Amino acid sequence: MEKKELLVVVMIGVLLLVTAMQTVTLAGMVTAGPAPVKAVTSSNSQSSSSGSGSSDVSSLDSLPSMVGGC
Predict the structure, then answer these.
(1) What is the rounded CA–CA span in Å between residue 8 and residue 6?
(2) Can you tell me the distance from the alpha carbon of 59 to that of 26, in angstroms, rounded to the nearest whole number?
(3) How many C-beta neighbours within 10 Å does residue 56 have?
(4) DSSP string, 21-36
(5) What is the pTM assigned to this prediction?
(6) What are the residues whose beta carbons fall under 8 Å from the beta carbon of 57, sequence distance 6 or more?
(7) Would you say 56 and 48 are in contact if contact means Cβ atoms under 8 Å apart?
(8) Residue 45 · residue 58 · CB < 8 Å
(9) Are 42 and 57 in contact (CB under 8 A)?
(10) What confidence tens digit (pLDDT) does each residue in 21-37 have?
(11) Is the Cβ–Cβ distance between 57 and 47 less than 8 Å?
(12) Is the dihedral of CA 64, 67, 69, 70 positive or negative?
């Protein structure tokens, strides 16, 4: 085999190996089930804009007024 052909065969082998590893990982995640979701409980009705990314759904109702929309 030429050097180029050997390189192509090695690269295809590496790609197949990576694909097999990803398949096993994905199959493991599917059989493990969904990740548990932490329940968000809020003692007050207004959420603070701390930028943490966690807010309750009721704050979405006031989103247009917060961003200056309709």
Answers:
(1) 5
(2) 35
(3) 12
(4) HHHHHHHHHHHH-PPP
(5) 0.45
(6) none
(7) no
(8) yes
(9) no
(10) 999 999 888 777 777 77
(11) no
(12) positive
Q: How far apart are the first and last CA of the chain?
A: 68
Report CA-CA distances (Å) from 26 to 14, 23, 34, 44: 18, 5, 12, 40
Neighbouring residues of 40: CB distance < 8 A, sequence distance ≥ 6: 54, 55, 56
DSSP secondary structure letter of residue 59: G
Measured between alpha carbons, how far is 8 from 3 in angstroms, rounded to an integer? Answer: 9
Q: How far apart are CA 28 and CA 40, in angstroms?
A: 28
- The pair of structure tokens assigned to 68 is 């200056």
Q: Where are the alpha helices (DSSP H) in the chain?
A: 3-32, 63-67
Point out the residues of the chain with pLDDT beneath 70: 40-58, 69-70
